[in-house]
């Protein structure tokens, strides 16, 4: 509460407005007053955001975040604006954004109508769908093979909800176990605690490429429910969403977005030089022109 009051006092002295709720300043005003922006990152969401060292995150979403931060610096005329980065998970990413702990997340978060009641989303920057990663010796080739088996996912993910519905609709008896993050969920499959891992297809390709034994894993099943990824900002902050959307629009129009895509999805990436060899999908290619922020259905 002391930090919020300090920021509020600084804004009042500067003649800047507070948000209607009185709880948080609008992001750009908050950042200007603190001379700092705080961004969230995922620790194991290859190739979007993942760690190379104890606190060194890299990836497609990290590069997008940096471009947005550069535009914040330019708009606020603060070239030396400090950037703090904190790790977030599927469970805490929305609460920590809403309560003002951090200001922006570009990770592997699906833009959904339900989440849109709590946060706002940028222009969609990726489209993914749920599939399964399993051991090659598991005998699992599709969803019907999951009957009576345990499937891993991450708590709070849309993948769990999609697969639960599919299983119910097709009378497949599936049990679930949850990892605290993507790496933990993968370990549940590798050590035999789960028969398969249900996540977005691109995450599965990245996890397999960077696993200790990629040849022992395979990705199976038709794609369930194509879903858009987008950056998250606080709800009701039109000015900051406009800036974020402006950055993404600029990158899409200039060809820089396509170059970033090729860098992370069609080229060798650190740490081991794995190549996902994943061409840009038709939905994403179309959104380079449409630049929609429409949520998943």
From TrEMBL:
Entry keyword annotation includes Signal: yes
Keywords from the UniProt entry: Signal, Transport
Domain named Solute-binding protein family 3/N-terminal: residues: 36-268
InterPro entries: Bact_solute-bind_prot3 (IPR051455), Solute-binding_3/MltF_N (IPR001638)
Region forming the signal peptide: 1-25
Superkingdom classification of source: Bacteria
Pfam families per UniProt: SBP_bac_3
PANTHER family: AMINO ACID ABC TRANSPORTER PERMEASE (PTHR30085), GLUTAMATE_ASPARTATE IMPORT SOLUTE-BINDING PROTEIN (PTHR30085:SF2)
Family according to the record: Belongs to the bacterial solute-binding protein 3 family.
Annotated protein name in UniProt: Glutamate/aspartate import solute-binding protein
Gene of this entry: gltI_3
